[in-house]
């Protein structure tokens, strides 16, 4: 652990990633305490201060109903991170199990499972999410369902390709000769060898999930007002460009910061964990 | 009495390019306590035969009888336990994400050998038996040399207390010096525990020094089988003679033996 | 003296996380024109890195610290510009690797790869001339149907065939020195014996000098005129093959020799663990070399 941190710290890019991610996580976790206007995460109006450019009171300005944009970004990070964590916490295990079984069992299981995965992968991600959202109500939970539906096949594909090559390794043969149960071979022998790649991908994906979720809310399909969400903030603000530029620029930068951080950190982890693409 | 009897066994693989007859109608017996060497060129079906003995592959025809009972596709844990494998490539044979002890212990857990509490002690005993320190069980395989890994592989097989050990080219990936030590270890263990070996290799010089009998394979067929002495002094098949003639030798006595064999009709 | 290769006091260290690791501790090695010399030793003793220095590859690796003298055909390899070293590879000196199939490019036909090699020496050579020359070389390595092989991809040929193709390709530009790093260990014993015999005769005909790297003493005995034994980055014994095999002088060479199982069936040897005697000074046989 200490050694891994040292390797990450040795690379300026990974270190930047680590710091950005920590900043985002801290911002989200401490939002109620550090936000200058903690009540502004809800349906509050304060027309006295509506549509203000950045100033000493509101560092990033205020929105059309007078809410502090900086405070709303901090709260929006909470939603983004929650969404990322929940999506990955569901998509990763599903994809992993499917990939492991297809890769190790081969034959019939491989043909059926990977065909399903390919069907999901052949649909453009946003189209799939929009389709799901079209059927379901546009709520946070449903946004998670939609994003999860498009995310798990990538894990299945990743784990499948690793499991398939690990299947040929001598240690798998050794376990088969001993007669170890399939569950042992897949989860106890092969899975540990997939974990570094999975963890790296999860870190990289945190950023992408945040983008996709923002795109959904940008299209009005995700989180609904008054809950603060980076994507919806950009979408609303875009209508008032270029005059009220702070409405879009700051939430946009916030998305960029988080995505950038997770990507840099993911790349750093790839080196630490010795994963090759 | 023969411990293992292979009765008219064949294996055909169905591939895109048509059927591949990897093993064709092979019959042979291995006596309790003997070391039978299986030799032959690459692709002659040695590993396929081994995998059928181990129950990894099902024969397309024929039967394999072990200790008097025919083995079916579904083997009992006791039947599996009795036949263990030592592999060729010590690099891939151990899971890099598992401690050495964890790899050796797997068989004990699967077969329920000893009580839970006893098993680590058994793992350590198995490591010591192959000349490794007991505390190596906590280490990962990454830091071990090829020879040490191969010893762990042997310990893993022996911890299961097998009757028959299939050795698929156990030393061909090792350096000469390491190979010599591992071969001696295998010989000593066989004597001490009364084990039976099926020793697959393409190195006839090794065969000469470890095997009681030799089975020569060519394109999936058993060309010739007989006591080691006889195979090396009077090989019946030209193919066997060619195999012996191809062995690189280091001393003059060997050169003489090779040349006499080459000149024989 | 017409030495094609003259290495003196070559040292090599790798820079890693924990400082420098010394790999070669000052080895000296000479090969006369047309001579077949073997470098024998156990895994990790420094055989392959020596070959990579001769090829001028390690000098360009950032973490490697190379020092000493390496003269190839009278030219100082160490002082050469990387571009000039690159120009030597595949023309004046060539290399054969352990695994023939993976050292050929799977996406090109054998004929195309032959042409590429020949163009390194003669960039203007026409296609028909290339094919004629390649066919000639393939015939020399006893490939029965050269025209078919030239149109084939490596994976369509057996390991033994690919090994012969590699040999033919390595010799097509008439190199002065051939570096063979454990050739054929990926092959069957009988195929290996065959290809080595063929390579032996071929380099004799062409007058090519060979540095033959192996850990298999039996193979070395059949192939080489002279032997260097290397142990942990030091040459411990050097001499004519006959002399070394009949009267090994160094404890390490003797241990290596004893460890080889004999087809006469004299039993398995007792092999000493690493012993201090292995670090004894180098033994040199005669002055015939
Ligand atoms: N799963 C498989 N599917 C198709 N063909 C196979 C399969 N396994 C082996 N074969 C073929 O069966 C033949 C025998 O292979 P096998 O691995 O038993 O040879 P071997 O004697 O062990 O060779 P080596 O010395 O190279 O290990 C070969 O022609 C091989 O290509
Ligand atoms: N690029 C490198 N960086 C660090 N160490 C290296 C590098 N290349 C080789 N070494 C080290 O140099 C030593 C000699 O390696 P070399 O490949 O020459 O061994 P060898 O004699 O060819 O062994 P083998 O028979 O296994 O091929 C080894 O200890 C190896 O770990
Ligand atoms: Mg095999
Ligand atoms: Mg090497």
Automatic annotation (TrEMBL), chain A:
Q: Which family does it belong to?
A: Belongs to the binding-protein-dependent transport system permease family.
Give the GO cellular component terms, alphabetically.
plasma membrane
| A biological process term (GO) from this entry | peptide transport
ABC transmembrane type-1 domain mapped to chain residues: 77-266
TM helices/strands, residue ranges: 12-35, 75-104, 116-136, 142-160, 206-224, 244-265
Signal peptide positions (record): none
The identity of this protein, by name, is ABC transporter permease
TrEMBL record, chain B:
Q: Which domain of life is it from?
A: Bacteria
Under the cellular component aspect of Gene Ontology, which terms does the record hold? plasma membrane
Tell me the InterPro entries matching this sequence. Answer: AAA+_ATPase, ABC_transp_ATP-bind, ABC_transporter-like_ATP-bd, ABC_transporter-like_CS, Oligopep_ABC_C, P-loop_NTPase
Q: Which SMART domains does UniProt cross-reference here?
A: AAA (SM00382)
Molecular function (GO) terms listed? ATP binding; ATP hydrolysis activity
Question: What membrane topology is given?
Answer: Peripheral membrane protein
Q: Where in the cell is it found?
A: Cell inner membrane
Mind listing the UniProt keywords for this protein, alphabetically?
Answer: ATP-binding, Nucleotide-binding, Transport
What the entry lists under Gene3D superfamilies is as follows:
P-loop containing nucleotide triphosphate hydrolases
A single BP term in Gene Ontology: transmembrane transport
Q: List, for all copies, the residue spans of the domain called ABC transporter.
A: 4-244
Q: Which family does it belong to?
A: Belongs to the ABC transporter superfamily.
Q: What PANTHER family does the entry give?
A: D,D-DIPEPTIDE TRANSPORT ATP-BINDING PROTEIN DDPF-RELATED, TRANSPORT ATP-BINDING PROTEIN
Know the name of this protein? Answer: ABC transporter ATP-binding protein
Give the organism, scientific name. Answer: Rhodophyticola porphyridii
Tell me the classification of the organism that encodes this protein: Bacteria, Pseudomonadati, Pseudomonadota, Alphaproteobacteria, Rhodobacterales
TrEMBL record, chain C:
Q: What is its main location?
A: membrane
Q: Which GO terms describe its biological process?
A: peptide transport; transmembrane transport
List the membrane topology term(s): Peripheral membrane protein
Query: Which residue ranges traverse the bilayer?
Result: none
Q: Which cellular compartments is it found in?
A: Cell inner membrane
Domain ABC transporter, first and last residues per copy:
5-257
A Pfam family it matches? oligo_HPY
Q: Which InterPro entries match?
A: AAA+_ATPase, ABC_Ni/Peptide_Import, ABC_transporter-like_ATP-bd, Oligopep_ABC_C, P-loop_NTPase
Kindly state which keywords UniProt assigns to this record, in alphabetical order: ATP-binding, Cell membrane, Membrane, Nucleotide-binding, Transport
What would be an example GO MF term here?
ATP binding
Protein's UniProt keywords contain Nucleotide-binding: yes
* Top-level taxon in the UniProt lineage: Bacteria
Q: PANTHER family under this entry?
A: DIPEPTIDE TRANSPORT ATP-BINDING PROTEIN DPPD (PTHR43297:SF2), OLIGOPEPTIDE TRANSPORT ATP-BINDING PROTEIN APPD (PTHR43297)
| Similarity-based family | Belongs to the ABC transporter superfamily.
Question: What name goes with this protein?
Answer: ABC transporter ATP-binding protein
Which organism is the protein's source?
A: Rhodophyticola porphyridii
Identify the taxonomic lineage of the organism of origin.
Answer: Bacteria, Pseudomonadati, Pseudomonadota, Alphaproteobacteria, Rhodobacterales
